[in-house]
Amino acid sequence: MEPRLIDKIVRAAGHIQNNVVCEVGPGPGGITRSIIQQVPRKVILVEKDPRFIPTLELIADACKGKVDVDIIAGDILKTDVSHFIPTDVKVSWTDPPPPVNLIGNLPFSVSTILMIRWLEMISKQEGPWSLGRTRMTLTFQKEVAERMAAPILDKQRCRLSVMCQNWCNVKYKFDIPGTAFLPKPDVDVGVVTLTPLKQPIIKLPFKMVEKVIRQIFSMRQKYSIRGAETLFPENVREEMALKMYSIADIDPVTRPFQITNSEFGRLCEAYNLIVTKNPELEKYDYRAPKQKFKRDEEIVEN
């Protein structure tokens, strides 16, 4: 609700004049007005709550002839905004980022889910990232924002840290006190910018990287090999996890938050090597009901 802070969020996105700006969850249009003052080429608003649409339509009418505004009444989790972005902004992935910005004051309830989904789209160069390395300026619950940017040994270091940093350059810009929002949340908010990397640190399929990192961090305070063991069926768990750590040249008693992004890359490569030789192991899901797996001539039961 504070214009000074709203402008600060928009300034964090950098130079947006003549850019295409997609705002996620504009609500009553506070950030939208600040975006429009920067005279972008086009503004795309994705709003799920129908109560805010009339207000956003008034804003769109007020700037007719100056800024082109598209209003999409829908859920960002189900909307491909790239359909609304002019195709002439497209650049090569290795070029500087295109003149496109994603800006959003995200609802806490979907922010992490949305971020993981966007990371997968970045890994496949889909959606807004089919046009190049589209930049994001987003708000998150402060703790989540800190996790995204957390370096090795940081108390907030977690799965989300490694996932975000594997595909993006993550910068924690500043805090916003909860008192600046209406209704007031119980926590403060962090503003984060993310720019996709030209090459990810771990050059493997998204689902595989996510699986390895998720399982290793599932036992964050224990030796990291304990989480890695859950990648494999019970009867070969210890053997395969030790083999994975040996291939990766990682100390098994290292804790997850002590592992660098490049070391996670070695662990993912080692896992990929093991499941390439034993394809049945890749199908194993620790969270699924008991399954049978065939490795060479033996049946492995969990």
Explain this structure.
It is found in: Mitochondrion. It comes from Parnassius apollo (Apollo butterfly). S-adenosyl-L-methionine binds at residues 1, 25, 47, 75, 105. GO terms for molecular function: mitochondrial transcription factor activity; RNA binding; rRNA (adenine-N6,N6-)-dimethyltransferase activity. Residues 5-198 form the Ribosomal RNA adenine methylase transferase N-terminal domain. The N and C termini lie far apart (54 Å). 37% of the residues lie in helices and 18% in strands. The chain is an alpha/beta fold and 302 residues long. Residues 296-302 have low confidence and may be disordered. The strands form two sheets. A seven-stranded mixed sheet has the order 3-2-1-4-5-7-6, with helices on both faces. A two-stranded antiparallel ribbon has the order 8-9. It contains eleven helices and nine strands. The radius of gyration is 22 Å and the shape is elongated.
Distance between the termini: 54 Å
The low-confidence runs, each spanning 5 or more residues with pLDDT under 50, are 296-302
Radius of gyration: 22 Å
Strand element count: 9
Could you report the average pLDDT, rounded to the nearest whole number? 93
Output the number of helix runs. Answer: 11
Order of helical and strand elements:
HEHEHEEHEHHEEHHHHHEE
Residue share in β-strands:
15-25%
Spatial sequence of strands, sheet with the most strands: 3-2-1-4-5-7-6
Globally, the shape reads elongated
Q: What's the story with the biggest beta sheet?
A: 7 strands, mixed
Helix coverage percent: 25-40%
User: What structural class do you assign from the helix and strand content?
Assistant: alpha/beta
EC number: 2.1.1.-
Keywords: Methyltransferase, Mitochondrion, RNA-binding, rRNA processing, S-adenosyl-L-methionine, Transcription, Transcription regulation, Transferase, Transit peptide
Enzyme class: transferase
Subcellular location: Mitochondrion
